[in-house]
Amino acid sequence: MRNRILYLFASLVILSGCGNQPAYKNSNLSPEERAEDLLQQLTLEEKVALMMDNSKPVERLGIKPYNWWNEALHGVARSGLATVFPQPIGMAASFEPDAIHTIYTAVSDEARAKNTAYSAAGSYERYQGLTMWTPTVNIYRDPRWGRGIETYGEDPYLTSVMGVNVVKGLQCTDANQKYDKIHACAKHFAVHSGPEWNRHEFNAENIKPRDLHETYLVPFEALVKEGKVKEVMCAYNRLEGDPCCGSDRLLMQILRQEWGYEGIVLSDCGAIDDFYREKGHKTHPDAESASAAAVLSGTDLECGSSYKALVESAKKGLISEKDIDVSVKRLLKARFELGEMDDPSKVEWTKIPYSVVCSAEHDSLSLDIARKSMTLLLNKNNILPLKRGGQTIAVMGPNANDSVMQWGNYNGTPKHTITLLEGIRSAMGENDKLIYEQGCSWVERSLIRSVFNQCTSKEGPGFSARYWNNKEYEGNAAATAQLTTPFRLCTSGATVFAPGVNLTDFSAIYQSVFTPQETGEVIFNFYSCGATQLLINGEEVKKFTNKHGGRGQAYAMHAEAGKPYDIEIRFQYFSGDAQLNFDLGFKEEVNIKNTVAKVKDADIVIFAGGISPSLEGEEMGVNLPGFRKGDRTDIELPAVQRELIKALCDAGKKVIFVNFSGSPIAMEPETKYCQAILQAWYPGQSGGKAAAEVLFGDYNPAGRLPVTFYRNIAQLPDFEDYNMTGRTYRYFKGDPLFPFGYGLSYTTFNYDNIKLEQTIKVGETAKMVIPVTNTGNRDGEEVVQVYLKKQEDTEGPTKTLRAFKRVQIPAGKTVNVELELTPKQLEWWDAQTNTMRTIAGNFDIMVGGNSKDAELQVKTLTLQ
């Protein structure tokens, strides 16, 4: 206490010439100085309240509330209207770092504009702040991992380059402004890539030091050292017995001591609870000991509420207030760096107009990167590009007309989404004819036939709706409405559920009487974000809450023809964008024979298949064949799709398969049944247009696979084995279906003799010139890839990417592609020191258009 009094007295003396203004309010001082001053004026209870993601205000000191949790995985997420870019795994397929930097600069513009609008309205809720919890730079080591779709692939170097450009685009550190624009976050640190079903108790153990430092830590080190990332999120799982958010080895030794990281470490949401909860790691007895251990290990900020116990932890002597101060100071410093504590008019970034959100310029960027992500995997007899004029084209499959699928996960809501069906319709010639027949769902052997038109309320056809501007259905209704079509309600883009209804903190009741015209099982389908109840004849039959974005839910009921059923749906706003989609209908079994007959006149069938973010993703409640908790238990194309494609092939149809997925699909049978395969990923708001442009040749594809596409699950090691043996192109010894770095073009390229100085000294840069000729008859882009292998190393990777460049080459022209391998890019594992460093020896430099050995030129580079 005596020291605190002396410090406050000194501060007053120093600032006596500033009208006794507290130092922390003086914007001329550094964020460090301001944070130190403010820290000394906080009570222990106030400090602890600032250490959770939903930070409470300290009104006596003018500290506003701040919610640290915001998302921008591929566009500002869960905050209403926003430009939706392709899922990161798709953007990685572009092999275009400059485009990634441009995109995330646009994303940070939208984030700043939104934050300015929210702050002006006095709103400081989740998904409204300036700390964006992205990018995900975990290595996509196994195609079964559901969250691999959020990553930049299986290669450490590609992930590092893309991740650094995400961070630099978001943070705009080169802008030389007084305040930071946005703070990015590298997640999830570290050795984290599934399974989703046991992530809260899983222990990644027996990790070889080489795998840890050569594979799993590489992107994080790049984001810390090159990207200057401001936040790092620790993972749910344990590493060698210690929860990652309580790992001295990860957070103190590697991150802070070895790498010199000075920013914030935050926990994944609920990760501290996992230290002590029954279905968690159970490494600690209670919240007091868990929270103290996490802070002492370097976790400054908790997403959750366990840190409330830190006050008691300090009283029990489990942690000192001085140790808590270390974390609180980092948090305060970050808020000062962002200008969040200051008058918005003084912060240059607040002048970004709201008109940037979903602007035409950003829409153009989304289309451009969607085009660049399109990856052509098969093109028999050059069936693509399709010719226009006089053809009948059938568009089929579960993803042909699904806009939500294209948004991926951790997404915003665009003004408009161009589905593949819409894109093809627009791209066809005047004399072409289009047939649309969905044919099947993703996995199930049934489709839902809507019977919403068999619902009638007292007010008329459909459902009557009553809304309250509170979450408790209390008082007089704020609005009423009649819904005559299936619900499509969402507050994204500041769109209210009905005129007069709040965007937040509201509730609703929807009522109708369903009188079925036939007997059978009726499915009540929901896709919602909020708290939802379904009551039938006054009895609650289904209740669920989705907290973080929309999720699907369903309820099945046996219905008898002519019997009336009172239907009531209750909805309460929870957080973020409220969403309620609803329909009901009878299941109809897929009839492949009848479906094929419906497209008998088609010359070409474009089958939009694959899977969906509603099946693969983060810890989901999916219980369908081939899926578990968002992970996949099988990597094959779902059987119902495979059977329909085969039937179309057997009927003599030319099938163009457009695969939408975030993970590699084992498509070996499809390479026999289909004439062409286009990997479209989850391509964002303009994905349908981009795919159609590729199919019709308006855009020459140049996407390349950032992950290996295996032939079948038999080629994969145990999912829970984190050693790299047999994993990814770097250690896989088999024959993949499509190798890492692979992708076709509508033209061809030839590599001439590489120019490379074959002997350099350790610490020097190897420069090379690679002549590449476009030997076809149309302009195109080639992704030149450079792989490295130490000749004497028999235990290391067979090759590993260390440089690449996407190059535009006119038809018939040769471009001399200049690339270099810096000392950092030439680093290799040194078993004697257990480090990655540049060492002497002979290296294979392998250059080509993908990672397949037969298509790579090899030169020897000697480091002396």
From TrEMBL:
GO terms for biological process: arabinan catabolic process; xylan catabolic process. The keyword Hydrolase applies. GO terms for molecular function: alpha-L-arabinofuranosidase activity; xylan 1,4-beta-xylosidase activity. Keywords: Hydrolase, Signal. Transmembrane segments: none annotated. Residues 458-600 form the PA14 domain. It holds the Pfam family Glyco_hydro_3. It comes from the Bacteria. The keyword Signal applies. Belongs to the glycosyl hydrolase 3 family. This is PA14 domain-containing protein. It comes from Phocaeicola dorei CL02T12C06.
